[in-house]
Amino acid sequence: MKFISIKEAIKKGKGKVAVRGWVHRERGSNVMKFIVLRDSTNIIQCVLEKKSFEKQWGEIDKIKIESSLEIEGEIKEDKRAPTGFEIKVSKINIIQIAEDFPINKDLNEELLGDRRHLWLRSRKMTASMKIRSTILFALHEYMHKKGFTEIQAPSLSGATSEGGSETFEVKYFDRKAYLTQSWQFYAENFISAVEKAYAIAPSFRAEKSKTPWHVTEFWHFEVEGAWMDLNDDMVVAEECIAHVIKKVLEENRSELEVLEADISKLEKIKTPFKRVTYKEAIDTLNKNGHNLKYGDDFKSAEERGLAKYYGDEFVFVTNYPLSLLKFYHGEDSKNPGTGTNFNLLAPGVGEMVDGSQREPDLKKITERLKKAGVDLGMSDWYLDSRRYGSVPHAGFGLGVERFAAWICGFDTIKDSIPFPRTPTRLNP
To answer: What pLDDT was estimated at residue 10?
Structure first.
């Protein structure tokens, strides 16, 4: 028979089927064996009676978790089975009998990390990786639909993008090089050629953070557009978020159910998202028991609080004081001393997207660099974007893992990346 996926077999519901995969669970006696078989699409219970497999029973009895099998039999509905269907097996081909599987429910996070390459086989991680794939595809789809050109930048550079201690230094032949923190410096030059550009690529941050929301290598979705202002930037960001969520709901409902994710949370996401200024956010926080003064930066608890206070929905916070911003953030001419910037805060997580309308004036950027004591050094080429045909422009960055973790309802972004890298984890 032609092999079909377990998902297709369940959809068929009755009759002869042939499936193949790995043993998810197994139990039985000396007369009957129950095997829960998994493939990348679902799981199904398979029942083998000894009287039908007298010659093979000795080998069948040795089957362990993660053994690989090919099975033929009759599928029927059975509400007692894990997914509501089971296969009465008439033929089995044992591809390989696995060794004792080194993962069980008693392993702690550290030991699961050591066995990450095997833990990816769990239903949780399989569902997570499928949702992650949909997210990445949907981001590409939205950007191409809106006329953005995908352009990559190097991961290795001869200088840091903004300086600081959060950069990984590597040996590059007889020189020093640095792993990229962001695509932005390149992007602000790309746009003079293609006008609207984006990239999805790894970024590296040498942060010795042990929080559940940080990894040292993450996938960065970054956008930059010529002629875009702050409002244009926020519209692209919110529409990206909404488009991705719609795609995941369309294509990954079964994976969301495996993860027991809050689907109603995703279904209620609508654009436009609420917009408040930094000053309004300060007032809201203080009304809710926080103790902040104008000029304070928000910590993660305050960011999560803001999303909660504004109805457990996404909220843009704009116009932060310039003193909190980088040299390339623009200044709002209508609100001097504040930036043309935003943070998009997500309920339960906090910052999801960071963006701004950039400062297009070379003289103002130079003054702010001097004031901040920043010497671009070998990154001075970045300012050619202002020297030769500078135009108003804006952009933003989104951490794919943080977004995926929010969609899936995870407590850590480590569950939304195949092989997380942290200050203490470099293998597998």
So the answer is: 98
| CA pseudo-torsion sign 28, 33, 38, 42 | negative
Residue 109 phi/psi, 5° resolution? -60, -40
Q: Indicate the pLDDT class of residue 204, thresholds 50, 70 and 90.
A: very high
Does residue 162 have a pLDDT over 70? no
* pTM for the structure as a whole: 0.94
Indicate the DSSP class of residue 331. B
Q: Which CATH superfamily is domain 6-96 in?
A: Nucleic acid-binding proteins (2.40.50.140)
- Tokens at 398, concatenated: 């989104």
Confidence of residue 19 (pLDDT cuts 50, 70, 90): very high
Tell me which of 89-103, 161-175, 305-319, 408-422 is least confident.
161-175
User: Tokens for 384?
Assistant: 């050619």
Report the C-alpha gap between 72 and 87 in whole angstroms: 8
Query: From CA 262, how far away is CA 246, in angstroms rounded?
Result: 14
| Residue 208 in this model has a pLDDT that exceeds 60 | yes
Q: Is 295 left (phi over 0), alpha (psi -120 to 50) or beta?
A: left
To the question of domain 116-416 being in CATH 3.30.930.10, the answer is: yes
What is the H or E stretch that residue 217 is in?
strand 217-226
131 close to 404: Cβ distance less than 8 angstroms:
yes
> Contact at 8 Å (CB) between 60 and 33?
yes
Which residue ranges make up each domain of the chain? 6-96, 116-416
Enter the DSSP assignment of 167.
-
The Cα–Cα gap between 378 and 157 comes to 10
